[in-house]
UniProtKB/TrEMBL annotation:
Domain AAA+ ATPase: 115-292
Lineage: Archaea, Nitrososphaerota, Nitrososphaeria, Nitrososphaerales, Nitrososphaeraceae
Reaction catalysis annotation: GTP + H2O = GDP + phosphate + H(+)
Chain ranges of the SRP54-type proteins GTP-binding domain: 116-311
Role description: Involved in targeting and insertion of nascent membrane proteins into the cytoplasmic membrane. Binds to the hydrophobic signal sequence of the ribosome-nascent chain (RNC) as it emerges from the ribosomes. The SRP-RNC complex is then targeted to the cytoplasmic membrane where it interacts with the SRP receptor FtsY.
Entry EC no(s): 3.6.5.4
Protein known as: Signal recognition particle 54 kDa protein
Gene Ontology MF term list: 7S RNA binding; GTP binding; GTPase activity
Entry GO CC: signal recognition particle
Similarity field: Belongs to the GTP-binding SRP family. SRP54 subfamily.
Domain notes: Composed of three domains: the N-terminal N domain, which is responsible for interactions with the ribosome, the central G domain, which binds GTP, and the C-terminal M domain, which binds the RNA and the signal sequence of the RNC.
First-listed, main subcellular location of the protein, grouped into a coarse class: cytoplasm
Organism: Candidatus Nitrososphaera evergladensis SR1
């Protein structure tokens, strides 16, 4: 995600880190590199100039706080300016979370406890709104909310069927009326249908609009009036870049927005422009879509996002992903892993957990690893993990419990059963033994806790 922007910003920072002296010429060079990276990501030119002007002025005039080097202070300034560009105000705003996930600065508290919260999803055609409806329902159920969905898209053929299929995967009920063309009426009927069920959140999926179509915008305003939502969310396609501003502005006039969801950020060079333009409207960017899977919706925090762009990692995002798995780890397994006595079965369980979270997510969010592993290396590591899973599946129970039993004859049998060369079987066992040794030697509760969460050896 944002590979070009990330690489450009990190390359610019290397000039500061590697410099023997901080002077105005160096700061000018840094600002030019940052301008180039942001403009290539379709961030509005005026906004880019404001960021770099502030960076230059502060870098040349501010004195670093006690204990912080001038280089580190410049990095901190850039971090703050980019976060503000993406909507961070410096306030500590908390999320109401039924499962107790930690509060995070810059994330809006958007659902009120003790009532049915109505969420109205808006967006133009093709923004991915119906898919996002299911993703948001999934995110909410994972965080302890009881959810119902109302499908009011009467324009696109198959929209209700698609919504029902997606929500069936997560056991969320969808209310819709196949034959009706009265979207506002469907919304009212849906709210009445779910009222006795005492749900926490009801999501209303609407038909896609074009900001130029006055009639559809009028219908959207009527939908807002009829459903009186607690939260109106605009779904924007991240590939449109800074055009997001005019869309958000038009929608905001028709139905005051509480927040924005930006989709398709996993494969676009214009994502930075969409994020910055959206934040410039004053509406909060609440979620970003980072992939195709139903779990690929991430609560957005400007500070955490910028931390990942600059290679500082995001442990918190990893912890939330791990919590989202609702893993119920075997206590005995955890003790074996942490004491360096894990079996091949434990090693396999670790790989399964990492696979569920997403290997790429683990690497991109880990401080010290974020940005250090190249794309082709990530693919190679992912492929190797897949090979190891086949190898372990070809072992007997006794071999998994005690890999020392694996002699040359057993190794050949495992290789034949998994379809892998013997050398790969040897390499897997070597890595398993290295993981055991590293776990045994690792010190500090935080590192052990992190490894226990993610099964990283």
């Amino acid at each position: 995600m944002f590979d070009n922007l990330r690489d450009g910003l990190r390359s610019a920072l290397k000039k500061i880190v590697g410099a023997s002296d901080i002077n105005e010429e160096l700061i000018d060079s840094l600002c030019k590199d940052i301008q180039r990276s942001l403009l290539l990501s379709d961030v509005k030119a005026g906004l880019v100039k404001t960021i770099t002007d502030n960076l230059k002025q502060r870098a040349l005039t501010e004195q670093p706080p006690k204990g912080l080097s001038r280089k580190d202070h410049i990095v901190t300034i850039l971090y703050g300016e980019l976060a503000r560009m993406l909507g961070y105000s410096g306030e500590v705003i908390t999320t109401i979370d039924k499962k107790g996930i930690d509060d995070d600065p810059g994330v809006t508290a958007f659902f009120k406890p003790g009532k049915q919260n109505v969420v109205l999803l808006l967006g133009i055609q093709g923004s991915g709104k119906t898919t996002v409806t299911a993703k948001l329902a999934r995110w909410l159920t994972r965080h302890g909310y009881r959810v119902g969905v109302v499908g009011t898209d009467t324009w696109r053929p198959g929209a209700l069927t698609q919504l029902k299929m997606n929500c069936a995967k997560i056991n969320v009920e969808v209310y819709g009326e196949e034959e009706s063309k009265d979207a506002v009426g469907i919304a009212r009927h849906g709210l009445e249908h779910f009222k006795p069920q005492n749900l926490d959140v009801i999501i209303i999926d609407t038909a896609g609009r074009h900001k130029e179509e006055a009639g559809l915008l009028q219908e959207m305003a009527e939908m807002h009036k009829a459903s009186t939502p607690d939260l109106a969310l605009l779904v924007l396609d991240g590939t449109i870049g800074q055009q997001a501003y005019s869309q958000a502005e038009a929608f905001h006039k028709a139905a005051p927005l509480g927040g924005i969801i930006i989709t398709k950020l996993d494969g676009t060079a214009k994502g930075g422009g969409a994020l910055a333009a959206s934040a410039a409207t004053g509406a909060k960017v609440m979620f970003i879509g980072t992939g195709e899977r139903i779990d690929d919706l991430e609560q957005f925090s400007p500070t955490r996002f910028v931390g990942r762009l600059l290679g500082m990692g995001d442990i918190k995002a990893l912890l939330e992903m791990a919590k989202g798995l609702e893993m119920q780890a075997d206590e005995n397994q955890a003790k074996r892993v942490l004491s360096g006595k894990m079996t091949i079965e434990d090693f396999y369980a670790q790989m399964e957990q990492v696979s569920k979270i997403g290997f790429r997510n683990v690497i991109e969010n880990m401080p010290g690893l974020s940005g250090m592993v190249k794309e082709d290396q990530l693919d190679a590591m992912q492929a190797r993990m897949e090979k190891w899973r086949f190898i372990i599946q070809s072992m007997t129970k006794d071999e998994k419990k005690d890999p020392d039993l694996i002699n040359e004859a057993r190794r050949k049998r495992i290789a034949r059963g998994s379809g892998m060369p013997e050398s790969e079987v040897k390499h897997m066992i070597t890595q398993y033994n290295n993981s055991k040794a590293m776990m045994k030697q690792s010190k500090g509760r935080q590192m052990q806790g992190l490894m226990r969460k993610f099964g990283l050896g």
